[in-house]
Specification:
The protein has 382 residues and is mainly α. The protein has a domain of 265 residues. Helix content is 71%, strand content 2%. The chain is built from 15 helices and four strands. α2 runs parallel beside α9. The longest helix has 35 residues. It starts with a helix and ends in a 5-residue tail after the last helix. The C terminus is likely disordered.
């Protein structure tokens, strides 16, 4: 904990800057959204809010996040060859989300453009190039880079796109995605702090730390405007950026070909992963496309069972804290030896995954969604 506090003191100004910029930019985004009619119109199905709510909250988050990364690069001491592509990629993903908010881009086009942007960033930064090689190394196989690097790039694109999609899907209640990703980003910062305290990477540690703390500050600055009852939504411009930042951080923890930290980061990000997997599983059981929008998310089911929106959001925050705590277990050290070695950590994470699935099944969260017509005629339906 001492190491974390020392690192936090060094990087707290970046988080504070992101928070202040978001706090002041969000009211401006609200006025611009009303001025140009960029509003989320309720439909009582996938959008059950009572009145039109302005979008463009994601632009305030993006401005704050981008400004912090730019300031960090200009201040020196950061690997701008890596940070600049990450910055430009994040802006591009946020703009793509903004266009979708305003003009509704076709899902296939959005997926294709997102994949191209993420691939370009990974190739420019070489982030996650040795992740697959590290897996083979565990089994005593040392394959050449010409084999492992292309596979690593494909898996990296899949991870970041998946993180973008998961963050987008969990943005279904006031303050849910904002608070959950703020906690996740704080977990990433704590994990990066642990690595920095031991000098894991002279160039990689500062990049991980500034990206994580920038998103913590931006998300916390936006939360007061987004918490129930929300005055503004972040839209895809915000959720996609939050997911991109989380996904890239997961890949950044693969630096040096060490899987321990990637696995820990994935556990920290477990709640959005669980929600996405649950929604797709329920759609599959209902015989629908797994990419079809519906109310299959775990938070939707809690609200449908009578749990107030604010309580549901707070429950989600609590679950995120639990997963983040478990993900940080591998940072525990004693006299230079890990208390929980990688093999035990993997077994623990597998156990947590199985336990999560069993609890969801016992709670009836895995049951397929009832047909919309039946829900609309029932007293508790949407």
């Amino acid at each position: 904990m001492t190491d974390f506090i020392n690192v936090l003191r060094e990087y707290q100004q970046y988080g504070l800057l992101a928070l202040i910029v978001t706090v002041f930019c969000t009211p401006l985004a609200i006025r611009i959204a009303h001025r140009f009619g960029v509003l989320d119109i309720p439909d009582q199905k996938l959008k059950p809010h009572a009145k039109p709510i302005p979008y463009l909250g994601g632009t305030a988050i993006c401005v704050a996040w981008a400004l912090v990364l730019l300031v960090a690069m200009l201040s020196g001491g950061y690997d701008w060859h890596r940070l600049l592509p990450l910055l430009l990629g994040g802006i591009a993903m946020s703009v793509l989300g903004l266009v979708d908010d305003v003009r509704h881009v076709r899902p296939k086009i959005r997926l294709l453009v997102g994949a191209v942007v993420i691939t370009a960033v990974i190739l420019c930064t070489r982030v996650g190039f040795h992740s697959v090689g590290a897996v083979f190394h565990i089994f005593g196989l040392d394959l050449p880079d010409i084999v492992t690097v292309p596979i690593s790039v494909v898996i990296g694109v899949f991870i970041v796109l998946g993180a973008c999609n998961s963050a987008n899907l969990i943005d279904g209640l006031d303050g849910l995605c904002t608070g959950v990703t703020a906690i996740i980003s704080l977990g990433f910062f704590m994990l990066a702090s642990h690595l920095a305290a031991f000098g894991y990477s002279e160039t990689g540690d500062p990049v991980r730390l500034v990206m994580a703390i920038a998103m913590v500050g931006a998300a916390l600055g936006f939360l007061p405007w987004n918490f129930n009852p929300a005055k503004i939504f972040m839209g895809d411009a915000g959720s996609v950026l939050l997911g991109y930042n989380c996904g890239m951080l997961i890949l950044l923890f693969a630096e040096g070909g060490t899987l321990r930290w990637v696995i820990g980061a994935l556990m920290i990000f477990a709640l959005p992963i669980f929600d996405t997997a649950l929604a797709m599983f329920r759609r599959w059981r209902a015989g629908r496309s797994i990419f079809e929008g519906d109310r299959s998310h775990f938070y939707d089911q809690l609200v449908q069972r009578g749990v107030p929106v604010r309580v549901t959001v707070l429950i989600s925050y609590g679950l995120t804290l639990v997963y983040a705590g478990i993900g940080l277990l591998l940072t525990w050290v004693h006299a230079g030896r890990p208390v929980i070695r990688l093999r035990y950590g993997v077994l623990l994470y597998i156990g947590v995954t199985i336990a999560t699935g069993l609890l969801a099944w016992k709670a009836g969260l895995t049951n397929p969604e009832e047909p919309r017509a039946k829900q609309e005629t029932s007293p508790g339906g949407d």
